[in-house]
Predict the structure.
Amino acid sequence: MLTISVQNDLHLIREALEIRGHNIANEMNQDTSIYIVSNIDEDWEQMKSLEWICLSKEKCVLIINASKLSVEKILEKIDHIAKKQAVC
């Protein structure tokens, strides 16, 4: 189970992730593994659809730009990550 922060306007993604059993937060916190954003400001305009950001040596967060991927692709990527985490 992952802790995923999802911006409030992404209702379909939020609901699908809750059904899958993930912990969902409105804002990024210390437990966040994945942060899904849709409202990108000018500082983040060049952000790719998927980008890892390392906050420390031991903590990296996957940022998913929902404005560049379909809901299906986002869920597919999260399912893939969740399966890998379950194996570790």
User: Anything to note?
Assistant: The two ends are 12 Å apart (CA to CA). The chain has a mean pLDDT of 89. The chain has one domain: 3-86.
